[in-house]
Amino acid sequence: MTDQVFDWMAAANKKAKGKRPEYFDDPEDERMLSILMAVVGEVSVLRERMDTVERLLDAKGTISRDDIESYTPDKEAAYERGAMIREYIYRVMRGPHQMVEELQQAEPPVEEVSRELKEI
Amino acid sequence: MSKTVPNDQKLDVAPPYNAVARHGVSPQPSHDEIARFDFLANFNKFMASTLSPGNKLAYDKRVLPAFLKEHGREPQDRFEIRHAMNKDPFHKFWSALKRNSMEMRQQNGRAIVLRQIDELNAKARQYNEGAQGVKSTLELNPEIAIPRYQSAVDIHCMPGSYHGEELPGDVSAGANYDCGIFATTGGGLGALTDGGGQALVDWIKKERPGWEPRRVLDIGTTVGHNIVPLALAFPDCEFIAIDTAAPILRYAHARAQSLGATNIKFIQANAEDLSRWDDGTFDWVQTTMFLHETSGKALPKIIAEGYRVLADNGLMLHLEQPEYSDAMPLFEQFLRDWDAFNNNEPFWSSMHALDMKDEMVKAGFDRDELFETGVRAVVDREIFPEAPTGEDEDHGRAAFWHAYGAWKNADQMQEAAE
Ligand SMILES: C[S@@+](CC[C@H](N)C(=O)[O-])C[C@H]1O[C@@H](n2cnc3c(N)ncnc32)[C@H](O)[C@@H]1O
């Protein structure tokens, strides 16, 4: 047993030694993305918890916290939950995903299209 | 569960974290901790298969053309590609997402472990200590210094690295390393993260049926993921697993004991100096996913020491990601280098540019004793998917390795016998 209270969550946040690369021009964007990604992850966690609750309720009608903690999906449920997370990731990652499509097909600005339509 | 996969289960999703096998010192994850790893495992799959192709598109469509225009020539190495790609908005964003995923994996793993660190330390002690104190199969030597190549940065952004302790004498580094690999590999290494070791067992049984090595040395064993399967497959053989880091050895030893691999002795030692072992002590000297975390001067020393302690007719084997040969396109080399600069693997790039065959010849082997082979993780395919290779693979993390090996003086031994 440790004598003093060990602040494990603060300790979990420890930074890895080694300068962090800078990906964006504005350092604040680095922080914003890290917060956003954490929220993206936590929403996924909430959804999975909700799914557990729903499945348990379907099966038993009433549940306890222990039921949630000890829930283990069978193969089919595991796949369905994986597919649910995958769908969720596609939903939130629409922007970066569309960047890939943009790269596949370069497009003229809509302003240009607008000028064109005026003439045809 | 003997259910077959329903026909509609076609999407590539990661197996649930629940499928990870538990051993005697496994951290016990809560429902939400499992869900965090489930998210990351699927997110990393998405990054590798859906977003990563954008890197090649960005390169072909705009980064390379701009480079050609500016320099009037092709990039001459992976570094030039990296510098050019680091200015590309798509690659920047992809890298930033990936870096975040690595950092989240560490935070999540550490939170699971540190929340229950007292219990984990107590469990480890149960396996590590016998009636006479610490068991003889765990030998810690506090005078072993952590080499600069291990302490310069925290490797793969793992806060505290392999040797860090949160509480004196703890196992947190090992437990965190162990519990989070699922998230970065999407389960590709199997329920006990030992798909590499399982593959070695299959390989050696085919390569040398009936061979019974007397003593095996595993260098840089970490938590022993890939040595436990070998130890279980050769129960009469004595295994020595060394590492410079005490916290992961405490965990490794407890983990191995709980899995029944009691024939492994874990020793805190630096592989650059194996002088405590006589020439020819071992029939098999190996490293798995280790050499890339050493340094330019340490690597040849380690291989030379390994050669010295290897007996005639003995096997040396190193499992790594494939080297950057001239045949490998520079763009692929650049992608494989991502971890070097974005995930704190400072020797990764230089190591993969080495010709391992030359290194082994320098250590003493004859060139015609050398062999190379591919090794694919052996895992339960019912639960764990085959990790993708090629276009869709998460470069640097694919569960498919290149083995550089040699049988020491095998030809001479053969001739002498005839
Ligand atoms: C990437 S890990 C190896 C993974 C492990 N072999 C496996 O298959 O799971 C590298 C390990 O090498 C250890 N290490 C680094 N330099 C070393 C040295 N000179 N001698 C012994 N161990 C070393 C580190 O502490 C770390 O645990």
Task: Produce the secondary structure layout.
The complex is a heterodimer of chains A (120) and B (418).
Chain A: H1 8-12, H2 27-60, H3 65-70, H4 75-92, H5 94-104, H6 110-119
Helix pairs in contact in A: 2-4
Chain B: H1 31-51, H2 53-71, H3 78-85, H4 89-115, H5 117-128, E1 129-130, E2 133-134, E3 138-139, H6 148-151, H7 172-185, H8 195-207, E4 215-219, H9 228-233, E5 238-243, H10 246-258, E6 264-268, E7 282-288, H11 298-309, E8 310-320, H12 330-336, H13 338-342, H14 348-352, H15 356-362, E9 370-376, E10 400-407, H16 410-417
Parallel strand pairs in B: 3-6, 4-5, 4-7, 5-6, 7-8
Antiparallel strand pairs in B: 1-2, 8-10, 9-10
Helix pairs in contact in B: 1-4, 1-7, 3-12, 4-7, 5-10, 7-10
S-adenosylmethionine (SAM) binds at residues 147, 150, 162, 196, 219-222, 225-226, 242-245, 248, 270-272, 288-290, 293-294, 298 of chain B.
Characterise the protein shown here.
The complex is a heterodimer of chains A (120) and B (418). Chain A has 120 residues and is mainly alpha-helical. Chain A has six helices and no strands. Chain A has a domain of 80 residues. Chain B has a single domain, classed as Vaccinia Virus protein VP39 (Rossmann fold). In chain B, α3 packs across α12. With 418 residues, chain B is α/β, with parallel strands linked by helices. Chain B has 16 helices and ten strands. The interface between A and B is large, with 53 and 68 residues. The structure holds S-adenosylmethionine.
Highlighted features:
heterodimer; A: 120 residues; mainly alpha; 70% helix; 0% strand; B: 418 residues; alpha/beta; Rossmann fold; two-stranded antiparallel sheet; 43% helix; 13% strand; binds S-adenosylmethionine
